[in-house]
Amino acid sequence: MTSMTFARRAALALALLAGAPAMAQQAAPMGGDSSRPLEARVRQRVAAVVQQRLALSDDQMRQLTAVNASYETRRRDLVARERASRVAIRQELARGKDADQKRVQESLDALFRLQRERIDLAEQEQRELAKFMQPSQRAGYLALQEQLKRRVEAMRARRGQGPAQGARP
């Protein structure tokens, strides 16, 4: 893992459980980056852990891969828009009493809209997962995602990088 930066490892780790099965299916290196084979192995390992811990059949795993792939772009878009709103708020707050209150309000409103979008997206994804996974499997999958998120945040805190980027305004 020495060839991967911490931020890249953390981003990969967060993405793994959100899209682990989809990424495991796309494990072939996509560029000249020497870390790609390592990423592919990590993805495959995470996918295997997901399948084993949730007792998913091969067919369920295939379907999980497809669902994750279909939601990945929307998840990334939400994260990027949320980050932009948080950055805008931080920039204005850094101006102190000269902060543009209208811009701060617009960014706050955007954050709440994005949180609603995130919930809507999660509900849509859960409805898709419910077509082929038992409720206990879906709950276990959510727990695995949360566990990995906490681990990544703890790694960042130990490295003095604080919470994940975009986690707070």
Could you describe the 3D structure shown?
The protein is mostly helical and 169 residues long. The chain is built from 5 helices and no strands. It has helices at 6-25, 36-53, 58-94, 101-130, 135-158. The two termini are 31 Å apart. Mean pLDDT is 82; it is low at 20-32 and 164-168.
Radius of gyration, in Å, reads: 18 Å
- Residue stretches low in confidence (pLDDT < 50, at least 5 long) are 20-32, 164-168
Order of helices and strands: HHHHH
The percentage helix is over 70%
DSSP E strands, number = 0
Overall pLDDT: 82
Main beta sheet: strand number and arrangement? Answer: none
- Proportion in β-strands: under 5%
Distance between the termini: 31 Å
Principal-axis shape equals globular
Number of helices: 5
Structural class: mainly alpha
Topology, please?
Elements: H1 6-25, H2 36-53, H3 58-94, H4 101-130, H5 135-158
